[in-house]
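<derive_structure_tokens>
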Amino acid sequence: MPTVVAPHIEIGSDNVPRITGTQTKVLEIVLDRLAHHWDADEIQRQHPYLSLAQIYSALAYYHDHQAEIDEAIEQSIAKSERIRNEVGDSTIRNKLRNAKAI
């Protein structure tokens, strides 16, 4: 059973903060803000099932828990890089790289 920790924010058994009643992680909203520089209105256009109140709550939750969410982002990036290094370049990526060199 999820625990409500802030207005519109709950933490489930996996210890991940999500917007209440959705599967949308606070981290996803934060990444939209940080990576794309989207404001709340643009985030809502991209996630029309979320209200502005839910989006602002996610951003407020981030500012209250910035260190731990930033750490989760860093861990996710490191995991992606490890997987990319283990798997190596895809055939398509190699073809595109070779085509660009020509």
In short: The domain at 3-101 is CATH 1.10.10.10 (Arc Repressor Mutant, subunit A). The radius of gyration is 17 Å. Strands lie at 3-6, 9-11, 17-19. The mean pLDDT is 92.
